[in-house]
Amino acid sequence: MKIEKVEVIVSSPDRNFLTLRLTTDDGLVGLGDGTLNGRELAVASYLENHVAPLLIGRDAHRIEDTWQYLYKGAYWRRGPVTMAAIAAVDVALWDIKAKAANMPLYQLLGGASRTGARAYGHASGFSIPELFDSIRDHQEQGFKAIRIQTGIPGLSSIYGVASSPSAGGKRYDYEPARRTKLPVEEIWDTPSYMRHLPTVFEAVRNEFGPELTLLHDGHHRMTPIQAAKLGKSLEPYDLFWLEDCTPAENQEALRLVRQHTTTPLAIGEVFNTVWDYQTLIQDQLIDYVRSAVTHTGGITAMRKILDFAAQYQIKSGIHGPTDISPVGMAAALHLDLAIHNFGIQEYMRHSEATNEVFIQSFTFEDGYLHPGEQPGLGVTLNDEASSKFPYQSAYLPVNRLQDGTSHDW
Locate the Mandelate racemase/muconate lactonizing enzyme C-terminal domain: which residues (predicted)? Predict the structure, then answer.
């Protein structure tokens, strides 16, 4: 079974998505997600100009060999553009292999280890009443685990808060990459955030009780000692995890955080390979692996990272916002269902326009996701709908401290 056709499709139903479509000589079609929010065309060029010529005529069944060929053959390894491109190819090949076997993909990964993947949603509000309304809305949708993001007094635009003026006041499916000539610049103040956040979680616990599973994302904005202090202050509110509390490129930095708090830690949405996790996993400095299948080399690579993590009782928390396309989400769900050390799955509902472009079989019911029983991934691309939404240039915001210093967004 040879790869006969390679197509790179970029569309923008509310946000930009990059889809790779591979077709074999016997007519099987596989889809892969190569979306890299704010840098989609870099991945598109990598695929079109450097990867596509290497795929024509290759045996579509040789997934591991193709992965190693693309990773090692380029000489220049790792990085988000390279790994998103490899992920797109890898997921498309798994889609084809499962269709050839006439099975849903999770069956080829060892079969189901659970009946569904527990999911968490994103509640946000610029004020406490807005936040409470958002939490209730998510509970009505069926979520039993909810990420809490809140406004900070004195700051006008906050990451993860849909009611921020810069977010247009929309539900939390807004596209953080704004369609502007230059990136939007937001102002941040860590001490204000650290003073305010524990009071928010105290209010949420008082209102919703101890049973609701709560999560929070620090989005890399704290130093290690600040992260340790925040983790300690949040311990009374029993978080499921504190995510990306400090930039973890310096893996040793998490050692200090770990020494000072028992709040569980989740790291990795900007990581691309197992090497980014080596110390974090081996020294048990985190509790959850947060990488996306789309940005970490696909199912082949992500499975290896999670198998490594399983040796240390570290679980999965695969990245799944709406800038992961339904193709990437489906790939994550098949992996979620199969692995033993599943933790939780991030889930944000895609827009109606996105669901028109990507026809999906996965479902969400009573707090759990399931990839469905269609052969392959269970996602098809509607070409007619896709063509209605051409690519639009967009940038993610950048962050500055109040004195103008560039800071982590």
Answer: 129-264
- Based on the fold, state whether residues 94 and 147 are members of the same structural domain: no
Residue 221 DSSP code: -
Mean pLDDT of 44-60: 98
Say if 196 falls within a structural domain.
yes
- Residues 86-125 have pLDDT tens digits of 999 999 999 999 999 999 999 999 999 999 999 999 999 9
Q: Closest Cα to residue 247, out of 222, 217, 210, 264?
A: 222
Catalytic residues: 159, 219
**183 close to 396: Cβ distance less than 8 angstroms:** yes
pLDDT band at residue 174 using 50, 70 and 90 as cut-offs: low
pLDDT for 42 beyond 90: yes
Do 334 and 190 fall into the same domain?
Answer: yes
Alpha helices in 179-265 (DSSP H): 190-208, 224-234, 253-260
Rg (the chain; Cα; Å): 21
In sequence order, which residues have a C-beta less than 8 Å from that of residue 120 and are 6 or more positions away?
143, 145, 146, 147, 213, 215, 240, 344, 345, 346, 347
Identify the CA nearest to 151 among candidates 138, 134, 163.
Answer: 163
Residue 344: which CATH number?
3.20.20.120
- The pTM of this model reads 0.95
Please indicate, yes or no, whether residues 220 and 286 belong to a single structural domain of this protein: yes
Residue-level pLDDT at 181 = 86
- The whole domain housing 132 covers 117-374
Of 39, 72, 104, the position where a domain reaches its end is 104
Q: Which of 249, 295, 248, 302 is nearest to 272 (CA)?
A: 295
Beta strands in 76-222, from DSSP E residues, in sequence order: 117-125, 145-150, 185-188, 213-217
User: What pLDDT does residue 172 have?
Assistant: 46
**Contact present, 271 and 296 (Cβ < 8 Å):** yes
Is 393 within the bounds of a domain? Answer: no
State whether 77 and 152 are in the same domain: no
Kindly report the CATH number assigned to the domain that includes residue 7: 3.30.390.10
Mean pLDDT in residue range 194-206? 98
List, for residues 297-329, the tens digit of each pLDDT value.
Answer: 999 999 999 999 999 999 999 999 999 999 999
Asked if the model's pLDDT at residue 257 lies above 90, the reply is yes
211: amino acid identity, one letter: E
At residue 191, what are phi and psi to the nearest 5 degrees? Answer: -60, -40
